Structures are given as structure tokens and as C-alpha cells.
Amino acid sequence: MWRDVSKGQLFQGDVFEGLAAWTGDKAQCIVADPPYFQVQTKEEWDNLWPDEEAYLDWTAQWVKAASQHLAPDGILYIFGQPGKREHVWLKVCAHLVDTLAFHDLIVWDRAVGYNERRDSFTPQFEMILALRHPEANKVFFDKDAVRIPYDEKTIQTYLRDNRYKDKEAREKHLRRGKYATNILRVPSLKGSSKEKIGHPTQKPISLIDQLIRSSSKPGDLVLDPFLGSGTTSVVCERTDRRWIGIESSGDYVQMTEERLATLFP
Fold first, then answer.
1. Residue limits of the DNA methylase N-4/N-6 domain (predicted)?
2. Which of 15, 124, 148, 232 can pair with 113 through a Cys bridge, CB separation 3.0 to 4.6 Å?
3. What range defines the domain where residue 160 resides?
């Protein structure tokens, strides 16, 4: 059963049960950080499938179910990780473009590598597959919402460029910042981070914020089918979006509730 949590709604239970139980508005944006399949070897939730084929079938099913709740011009973001132990992500991408239409493939540059390996380069990035409805001619995307500010020194350097005759218009443009690319450089959360609250795959607020602000407007609904530590709900609360989240773990539900309570004590 869905229940109110702060300004959003949360379902504790299986992702398919939650998606089937939701009868409200369509989500303008879906942000999904599902299990990666046998990457978190010590976590039961990442080792529920006997083989890759079972995991791929489960993935295709939940994406299809989630897409029923996606607005016609919405974007569905799915996190994944390529690597020696995570090669199934490449198959996930290939499978899902048969379920929805490919829109983009975003690189999350974690800024710091992890699990250094002797026989390959140190992994430093994850990926975010962006999908849309096949029939969508265009999707809602606000590039201005995620501009990256120039520092003052850079602005003054550009203003000295004599090719631009209208200095006032040029400065106005520069102060709006540059457009973000599909390589998002956001440092991953380390154990010492004040933001870290105990979830092993917790994503940074800044990263989720860029996905949500670019792909929805204030007042829009955002869906997270694997809510985890509640980062999506935190971003939505801060940016005036409505949110719905599904999470099977009672511990993580409690984690989200406690986290939101610190925002609005």
C-alpha cells in the first residue's frame, strides 16, 4: 500500500507490486538505480538471480512495467556499470532498446577510481542509459536548468575576445554558464562524506539533481522504482517536485524516512 512520506509517497515492497498498485499521475521522469547483478557480492538484493538470462528477463519486465507510468514526453534513466564483473550491463543496454527507444547514454565520471585491478585500467565511471517512448517525437529536456557556471576569471578572459561586438549580450550569455555535456563529473561518495548514510551504492545528490532538474519541472512527478537511500526523494523535496518511490527493504525505507526528517524536522 502506498503511504505518504513527507511530500511524496512510498511503497514498501516488490517493484512489480508497487508499479501495479500505483494509479496516480504519470511520471515526467523516472530515475532507476536497480541491482547490477552480482556486483555487490555481499548484498542479498544483488544476488537474487541464478544466471544472467534470468536477470535480463527481470530487467526487461520491470522496465516495461515502469514505462507504463512514464509521461509521453518523459525520460527513463537507468544506472549501470561496465567492467569485468559488470559486463552484463552491455547486454542490458542491448535488450532495453527493444523495450523503449534509445535517447542517450550518459557517463558518470566518479572522479576517483575504485577497486584497482592488476590487469586493467582502474574503473572510474558508471553509465546512465536514457530511454524514451518509441512514439515520442521529442522529450522534455531543460538544458538551461543544468548550466555550469563559469568562474569570474574565465568570464573576463572571454569578454576580452574582440570577435564579440555586443559585450553586454556576451557577458549575459557567459553569466548563464555553459551547457552540461553527457559526461557528468561528480565525485562518488566516500565513507567520510557527510552525505553518506550507509547504503553501499548511494548516489550523490548532485548527480541525481542534474537528472531530475533537466528532465522535469517544479510540480512534476518523479518516480524511483528502487528508492534505496532516498536520494531521489531528497532532490525532489529540495526542488519542489512530487515523488513516488518503491523500496523492498524495510531498513532502507527507514533510512529514507530518517533522512527526510532531517530536511524538515
1. 28-258
2. 124
3. 142-180
Cα angle at 228 between 207 and 13, to 5 degrees? 145
Distance CA 253, CA 230 (A): 8
Residue whose C-alpha is closest to residue 21's, from 76, 86, 68, 82: 68
C-alpha–C-alpha distance, residues 68 and 133, integer Å: 10
Coil, helix or strand at residue 11: strand
Angle, CA 77 vertex, CA 128 and CA 80 arms, to 5°: 35
Q: What's the order of all strands across the beta sheet hosting 8-12?
A: 3-5, 8-12, 242-247, 221-224, 27-32, 70-80, 125-132, 101-109, 183-185
Crossing angle of helices 152-159 and 167-175, in 10° steps, is 150
Residues 131 and 20 in one domain: yes
Enter the DSSP assignment of 165: S
In sequence order, which residues have a C-beta less than 8 Å from that of residue 96 and are 6 or more positions away?
59, 60, 63, 78, 129, 131
Query: What is the residue type of 147?
Result: R
Question: Which residue has better confidence, 106 or 113?
Answer: 106
Q: What does the pLDDT look like over 209-239, one tens digit per residue?
A: 999 999 999 999 999 999 999 999 999 999 9
123-176 pLDDT per residue, tens? 889 999 999 999 998 999 999 999 999 999 988 888 888 887 788 888 888 889
Digit-coded pLDDT (tens) for 32-77: 999 887 666 677 766 777 888 999 999 999 999 999 999 999 999 9
Give the end of a domain, one of 130, 162, 180.
180
**Shared domain check, 146 and 121:** no
